[in-house]
Amino acid sequence: MRTAACIAFVLGLAGAIALIAWQGFGTVSVAMGTLGAGVLLLPLIYAPHYLGAAGSWSLNFPDGRRPAFVRVLRAIWIGIAVETLMPLGGLAAEVVKARLLIRDGTRAADAASLAVVDMTVQIVVLIFWALLGFSALIVTGPDETLFWPIITGAAFLTLAIGTMLYAQYANLLGKLAQWGARSLRSPRWQGLADNAHHLDRTIRAIYARPFRVAAACAIRCTTRGLMAVEIFVAAWLMHNPITPSDAVMFIGIICTLRAAAFVVPGGWGLQEGAYVVLGQMIGLEPEIALALSLATRARELMTGIPALLLWQVIEGRSLHRLIGGRPEPMTSELDPA
């Protein structure tokens, strides 16, 4: 997978560069130049999304075992940076978030189950925004034949989230691990089965508070709209204003495409191509559409690189403790009792 991700990154980056070269580096740079210092506004517009995501995640922590909000916020900040800038971003982000929680003293079962539930919440939000984006495309798009492919895609996404929820609620992780333990008759597999059963119980305990899970989804859905505001403001600063519906279309469809192509780090090439195609539907020149894509890239780098550097500092301290023979300040206890 690592090799495939590297190849996908190289091909995607080459595709993005080819699109820019096709329009002319000078033309695209002029379009970006119209944004100017306004690019510094984009991280400020996006910043509340971190607070909303941290607040959403905090709702699902067990009572009495919720870490300080600033620690949850730090895990969210680093997780989003991993998701947007690294290969296998979505999956890797949940692993990193869980590890950061464990380092801060959260029980391993709580951290793992919270990561699984938060990933499910994000998929629900992604589906919601995909439906918004494709609905805006139906209104904007000139081709009525888009309707049935969009409906089919929405049905597939709904089936996917339904399957994921059923797998979490029906104790499938524990049953799969138990089947492996019986088949292999290995003590290691038996231990894995016990841990998987405990993870299933912890996940079900979270879903036993449906109003909190629903509130977490609502908060995430709301704060994701800041990405549409970001695109709207960037286009306005470039003197090529778009409508709010157009901004929703960009975010809903492009975020869905990037999630589907998770093996491509940052969706390089795919995002740029999608911006050009969708931009043409609403009358944007290709160089302006590419400049909008590059503006979002600039915000991702401005907010993501510091987060990745902080993550490396944290992991470096852990390595230093291991070399010095001191245990990490973390717990791997699975039993919440």
Features:
13 helices, mainly alpha
Q: Give the SSE order as H and E letters.
A: HHHHHHHHHHHHH
Residues in β-strands, percent: under 5%
Q: Please, what is the oligomeric state?
A: single chain
Q: List low-pLDDT spans.
A: 179-184, 188-193, 330-337
State the end-to-end distance. Answer: 38 Å
- Structurally, the number of domains stands at 1
Shape assignment: globular
Structural class: mainly alpha
Q: Give the biggest sheet.
A: none
Please compute the radius of gyration using only Cα atoms: 22 Å
Instruction: Round the mean pLDDT to the nearest integer and report it.
Output: 75
- What's the helix count? 13
What share of residues is helical?
Answer: over 70%
Total strands? 0
Summarize the structure.
The protein is an all-alpha fold. It has helices at residues 2-23, 25-35, 41-58, 69-85, 89-103, 108-140, 147-169, 172-184, 187-207, 210-237, 244-260, 270-281, 286-323.
